[in-house]
Design brief:
heterodimer, A: mainly alpha, three-stranded antiparallel β-sheet, 10 helices, about 60% helix, rod-shaped, B: alpha+beta, four-stranded antiparallel β-sheet, 6 strands
C-alpha cells in the first residue's frame, strides 16, 4: 500500500508539473487538429471527385448522344457508351482509390417543344390523322386535305417534316462510392445542399441539366445514395439528328419512274 | 501559497497571481485552439459551398451555350436536307431543260423547212410538235425549280434558320433557368415579394451568337456578278428560247422558267451573299481555284452566367464576425461563369452524290449533313472576335 501511495503521489506530482501540462495540452489539441485536417482533406477530395465525376458523366452522355444519333434507337446507354465512358471514368475510380465502382445508367427521352408539337401535327395531318382516328368523316377530310397539301407541295412538306430536328435527349447518370471518414449525415450535408427556386428544386450537384423526373425522386435517391456515401451525377445531353432517312418526294418519284422507263432513262441519268 | 481570499494582496494581485500560475493554462490554450479550429472548419465549409456554387453556375453557362449551339446545328442539318431536295428538283429541271434545248433547234429546223412547197405543212406540224415538247419540258423544269425552290423551299429554309436560332435562345434560357439561373426576364414582381429590397438578383445568362451575319444572312444567291462557275447546280443561262422565233416563248416566260436557273441553294460557307467565295490565282502560268473555307456556319455561341447576389450558406461561426448582418449565416458574393459553344457543321453543300445512287435516299454522314455542337474554349471566341469585332455589335443588338 505504501508503494501504491508513492505511485499515486508521483502521478499527482507529474500531473501538476509543467511537463504534464504540455502533455495534456497536446492530448487535447492533437485530435482536434487531426480531425480538422482530415475533415478539410476529405471535403476537398469529395469535391474533387464530384467534379471529376461530373466531367466524366458529361463525356459519357456526349458519347451516348452521338451513339443514339448513329443508331437512331432509344436504347441507352449502349454497350459502346459504357465501354468508352468507363475508360474515362478510370480516373474517377483512381480518385476513390480503386475501391469504388462506377455505375452507369441511362435512358433516352424525346422532349416536347413548340416545334416538335407543330411538326407532329403536320405529320399527322399529312397522314390524314390530324383529326383523330375515331371519326371516319373527319379522318376522310384529313386524308383529302393531307393529300392536297402533299400534292401542292410536291410532297416536300412531308419530306421536311420527316427530317426536321427532333428534340431528343439522352440521360446518363453515374454513381460512385466515395470513401470518407465523415459520418453519413455529414457527407449528406456536404453532398446535397438545399436548392430552392429556379425551377430546379432539390437536385443534385454536378448535373449538366436538371433532373426532368422531378425533384422529389432525385432527392430520395440522392439521400439513399448519400447514406451509403455514394454520389450520383446525372447529365442530359441533346441528340442532334444528323442522318435522317428521307421519304420519296414527288420529284424523286418522278426521277425514279423515268429511270425505269427505257425511253426516259437518258433524260434523268 | 494561498491564491484566493488573501485580502492583503488585493484583487489585482489575485489576477496577477492567477496569470502567473500554470493552473488553468490548458483551458486558455484550448479556448484559443478551438476558436482557430472552428475558423478553419468554417473556411473549409465555405470553400466547399463556394466551389459548389461555382460548379452550378458553370453548369448553367455550359448548358445554355451548348443548347444554343445544338439548335443551330439542328437548323443547319435541316437546311442541308432542304438543300438536298433543292438539288433534286434543280437537277431534274436542268435535265428537262437540256432535253428542251435539243428539241428547240430541231423545231427551228422544221420551221425553216416549212417554207418548202407542198411538204412544208408537214414540217410546220412537226415544228409545232417539237416546240410544244420543248416548251413543255423546259417550262415544266423551270416551273418545278421556281415553285419548289424559290417559292417554297427557300422560305422553309429561312424558317428553320431563324426558327432554330430562336429556339436555341429560348432553350438556352430555359436550361440556364433550370440550372438555377434566372433568365433576364425573371426580374419579376414575384421576386420582389420574397426580397424586401424589392429587387432580386439571381443568375443571369446572356447569350451571343457570333457572327450573326453568317447565321441570319444565309446566302440565297440569285443571279450576280460573282457567280460560282463550278457550282454543281449552276447551268448556263438559257438563251435559245429568248432568241427564238418560236411563238411559244411567251408561255415559257410565263412559267417563270427563266428565273429558276439562277437559283442556288443555301450554302454554309462564310463569305458574301453570292455564296461560296472562290479565289482564282495564277501560279507559274497555272490557274488554280481555291474555295474559301475559313469558318463555317454558324459562329460560336457565347454565354455568360453571372449572379451578383449569390447567397453562400456558411457555418454559424460566420455570424460571430457579422453579428449585425440580417443575413448573418450567409455571404453574398458576386460570381460569374463563361461558356462558349459552337455549331460545327459539315460543309452544307448543295447536293449529295450518294443520294443519286442510293435509292434509300439516305445521306451519308459527313457529306453535307452532320452538323454537331460542342463546347469550345472561351479563348477561341475571343480570338474569333478579335478577327472581326464588327460583327459582335450586331450580335449584341440582336439578342
Amino acid at each position: 500500500m505504501k508503494g501504491e501511495s508513492d505511485i499515486l503521489k508521483a502521478i499527482k506530482r507529474r500531473l501538476c508539473g509543467e511537463r504534464a501540462t504540455v502533455m495534456l495540452e497536446f492530448a487535447f489539441v492533437a485530435p482536434l487538429v487531426l480531425i480538422v485536417a482530415i475533415y478539410s482533406a476529405d471535403t476537398m477530395r469529395i469535391l474533387r471527385t464530384e467534379q471529376q465525376l461530373e466531367i466524366a458523366t458529361r463525356l459519357a452522355a456526349d458519347v451516348e448522344a452521338h451513339m443514339a444519333n448513329y443508331y437512331g434507337n432509344g436504347k441507352t446507354p449502349s454497350s459502346a457508351t459504357k465501354n468508352v465512358a468507363k475508360r474515362y471514368l478510370v480516373d474517377v475510380a483512381h480518385v476513390v482509390e480503386n475501391v469504388g465502382d462506377v455505375y452507369i445508367k441511362g435512358d433516352s427521352y424525346v422532349l416536347k417543344n413548340l416545334l416538335s408539337v407543330a411538326v407532329d401535327w403536320i405529320n399527322r395531318f399529312m397522314k390524314g390523322q390530324a383529326f383523330g382516328d375515331d371519326n371516319l368523316f373527319l379522318k376522310l377530310i384529313g386524308k383529302i386535305l393531307g393529300g392536297i397539301m402533299n400534292f401542292v407541295t410536291f410532297r416536300t412538306v412531308n419530306y421536311i417534316t420527316d427530317v426536321v430536328p427532333h428534340d431528343r435527349a439522352v440521360k446518363i447518370s453515374t454513381a460512385v462510392y466515395i470513401p470518407t471518414i465523415l459520418p453519413s449525415a455529414a457527407y449528406a450535408a456536404i453532398s446535397l445542399p438545399k436548392r430552392g427556386g429556379g425551377g430546379g428544386g432539390r437536385i443534385g450537384v454536378g448535373q449538366f441539366a436538371p433532373d426532368l423526373e422531378g425533384g422529389k425522386a432525385a432527392t430520395a435517391w440522392n439521400l439513399k445514395l448519400n447514406a451509403k456515401k455514394r454520389h450520383r451525377v446525372y447529365c442530359y445531353m441533346p441528340v442532334i439528328d444528323s442522318v435522317p432517312v428521307a421519304p420519296e418526294t414527288y420529284v424523286r418519284k418522278f426521277k425514279s419512274w423515268c429511270a425505269k422507263h427505257p425511253l426516259l432513262k437518258g433524260l434523268v441519268n | 501559497m494561498e491564491m484566493t481570499g488573501n485580502k492583503e494582496w488585493g484583487t489585482g494581485n489575485v489576477l496577477l497571481g492567477r496569470l502567473a500560475s500554470e493552473r488553468g493554462s490548458v483551458g486558455v490554450v484550448m479556448a484559443l485552439v478551438i476558436f482557430v479550429v472552428m475558423g478553419m472548419m468554417t473556411m473549409t465549409w465555405n470553400t466547399a459551398q463556394l466551389s459548389k456554387a461555382k460548379m452550378r453556375l458553370q453548369n448553367a453557362a455550359d448548358s445554355a451555350a451548348l443548347a444554343h449551339a445544338v439548335w443551330q446545328a439542328r437548323g443547319m442539318n435541316a437546311v442541308q436536307n432542304i438543300n438536298d431536295e433543292m438539288y433534286e428538283a434543280l437537277s431534274l429541271s436542268v435535265k428537262l431543260r437540256n432535253f428542251a434545248r435539243i428539241m428547240e433547234p430541231i423545231a427551228l429546223g422544221f420551221d425553216a423547212a416549212s417554207n418548202i412547197p407542198f411538204v412544208g405543212i408537214i414540217f410546220k406540224g412537226l415544228a409545232i410538235a417539237m416546240h410544244t415538247i420543248a416548251v413543255l419540258a423546259g417550262g415544266t423544269g423551270g416551273w418545278l425549280a421556281t415553285r419548289i425552290c424559290k417559292y417554297f423551299l427557300k422560305w422553309i429554309a429561312m424558317f428553320y434558320v431563324y426558327g432554330s436560332s430562336i429556339l436555341g435562345v429560348v432553350n438556352a434560357q430555359k436550361l440556364a433557368s433550370q440550372n438555377e439561373a434566372d433568365p433576364l426576364a425573371a426580374c419579376s414582381p414575384s421576386s420582389s415579394v420574397t426580397d424586401p429590397d424589392g429587387w432580386h438578383l439571381g443568375i443571369y445568362s446572356i447569350g451571343v451568337s457570333w457572327p450573326v451575319k453568317d447565321t441570319f444572312l444565309l446566302p440565297l444567291a440569285e443571279s450576280g456578278k460573282d457567280e460560282v462557275k463550278k457550282a454543281p447546280w449552276k447551268s448556263d443561262k438559257i438563251s435559245i428560247f429568248e432568241n427564238s422565233i418560236s411563238p411559244w416563248k411567251q408561255i415559257y416566260k410565263f412559267t417563270g422558267a427563266g428565273d429558276a436557273w439562277d437559283i442556288k441553294p443555301y450554302v454554309s460557307k462564310r463569305g458574301d451573299k453570292e455564296g461560296i467565295k472562290v479565289e482564282t490565282k495564277k501560279q507559274g502560268g497555272k490557274e488554280t481555284t481555291k474555295v474559301d473555307d475559313q469558318g463555317v456556319l454558324p459562329g460560336p455561341t457565347f454565354w455568360i452566367a453571372f449572379k451578383l447576389g449569390q447567397n453562400i450558406e456558411t457555418l454559424p461561426l460566420d455570424g460571430f464576425f457579422n453579428s449585425g448582418d440580417k443575413d448573418r449565416w450567409t455571404h453574398k458574393l458576386p460570381m460569374f461563369a463563361i461558356a462558349a459553344g459552337q455549331c460545327i457543321t459539315g460543309d452544307v453543300v448543295p447536293h449529295s452524290k450518294k443520294s443519286e445512287e442510293d435509292k434509300t435516299n439516305q445521306r451519308p454522314a459527313g457529306f453535307g449533313a452532320g452538323a454537331t455542337a460542342k463546347l469550345v474554349p472561351v479563348s477561341q471566341v475571343f480570338y474569333d472576335i478579335a478577327k472581326g469585332a464588327g460583327y459582335v455589335v450586331d450580335a449584341i443588338v440582336y439578342h
